[in-house]
Each structure stands twice: as structure tokens, then as C-alpha cells.
Design a protein that fits this description.
Strand content: 15-25%
Number of strands: 7
Largest sheet: 7 strands, mixed
CATH class: Alpha Beta
Number of domains: 1
Strand order of the largest sheet: 2-3-4-1-5-7-6
Order of helices and strands: EHEEEHEEHEHHH
CATH superfamily: Peptidyl-tRNA hydrolase
Number of helices: 6
Radius of gyration: 15 Å
Shape: globular
CATH topology: Rossmann fold
Structural class: alpha/beta
Distance between the termini: 37 Å
Length: 193
């Protein structure tokens, strides 16, 4: 199935009130990829906004589920079934608390570390073997509740660096598509310079 498309999913919550939240890092990366391609997302019947395109020489579907984060799995499974995408051709871009702000970690498979979007996707796909581009947002300060923290916007200091980090995450997605996961991990699984 070498001509199978890739499905690149950015996780976030739909609507302007959530647009700048830490939890929407996945949407931010997909929006940047769309800008690079000069393409616009269109609504798809699978409850996702979608771009069908070519990226890094591959047939690619860029998708932003239009459900809330904890129900992301249903649109992802729907797109997988509609476009016949094997699980190893699914890349999920998401925010990650367990990684310092600005760091990236690329990996295939693994747990969900309490991330409700990943939990939903793994359950609906019946597999955890998809690729993840984990965008570090760091831990909440003090005793701040995790749910409160991820639904807050990036602070002023973080916002200054954010375009660089989102750009690097978009480069990582392109790296996975063009050179494969292992080489992309070697290039991006390090602290930002």
C-alpha cells in the first residue's frame, strides 16, 4: 500500500475562543502547513476540516477534527476509513505537558499520558501505532489544574517564541513524510537551538 495517502491530524478545539490555547498547538501547526501550501481547509462530512494535497512528494490529507478534543477519534477514524489510510500513515500533532515548552518529540505508538485527544483516537482506531508529533507546552505552574492550564493562551514570553516552535513542528511533519520517522527523530528530538 505504498500509494496510500498520509493523514496528518492536528488536535485542538474548534472556535475562536480556543484558537490561541496551549491545547490548540496541533491546529496551529496544521494552519502553518496550509499557509505554506497556500491552501484552505474545507469542511468534510467526517466532521473535520480537510485539505487534500501533496506535501514532501506524498499524497497527504491535512485534517483538523471539528469535534472537541476528547471526541477527536471519531473524525480521525472516519477519515481513515473513507480514504483507506493504514495506521502507520497517520500522524497526530498535539500539545504535550510532559515535554518542556518549545521541545519536540516524534514517536510511533505509546500511551496517551492522560491526553484526552489521544485517548479518543486510540480507542476509535483500535490501535496506538500511529505517529505522534508531540509539541512541548510544559507543566502547569504551581498547583494550577491541568485542564485550566491547557485551555489558557500561551503567556507573553511564550508567544514571542511560539512562531519558531510551530514552524519547527511543521518542519518535523514534512521530515516524517520526506525521510521517514527515524531520520526525522534524529533531526528534531532535541532541545530547540
Amino acid at each position: 500500500m505504498t500509494d496510500s495517502p498520509w493523514l496528518v491530524v492536528g488536535l485542538g478545539n474548534p472556535g475562536p475562543v480556543y484558537a490561541e490555547n496551549r491545547h490548540n498547538a496541533g491546529f496551529m501547526v496544521l494552519d502553518l502547513l496550509a499557509d505554506r501550501l497556500r491552501e484552505k481547509f474545507k469542511a468534510h462530512k467526517g466532521r473535520a476540516n480537510l485539505i487534500e494535497t501533496r506535501l514532501s512528494g506524498q499524497r497527504v490529507l491535512l485534517a483538523k477534527p471539528m469535534t472537541y478534543m476528547n471526541e477527536s477519534g471519531s473524525p480521525v477514524a472516519s477519515l481513515r476509513d473513507f480514504f483507506k489510510v493504514p495506521v502507520d500513515h497517520i500522524v497526530v500533532v498535539h500539545d504535550e505537558l510532559e515535554i518542556p515548552y518549545g521541545w519536540l518529540r516524534l514517536k510511533a505508538g505509546g500511551g496517551d499520558a492522560g491526553h484526552n485527544g489521544l485517548k479518543s483516537i486510540s480507542a476509535c482506531l483500535g490501535s496506538k501505532d500511529y505517529v505522534r508529533v508531540r509539541v512541548g507546552i510544559g507543566r502547569p505552574p504551581g498547583r494550577m489544574d491541568v485542564a485550566t492550564y491547557v485551555l489558557k493562551d500561551f503567556n507573553a514570553a511564550e508567544r514571542k517564541e511560539l512562531p519558531f516552535h510551530i514552524d519547527r513542528a511543521a518542519d518535523a511533519v514534512e521530515g516524517i513524510l520526506s525521510t521517514g520517522l527515524e531520520l526525522a527523530q534524529n533531526a528534531f528530538n532535541a532541545p530547540p537551538v
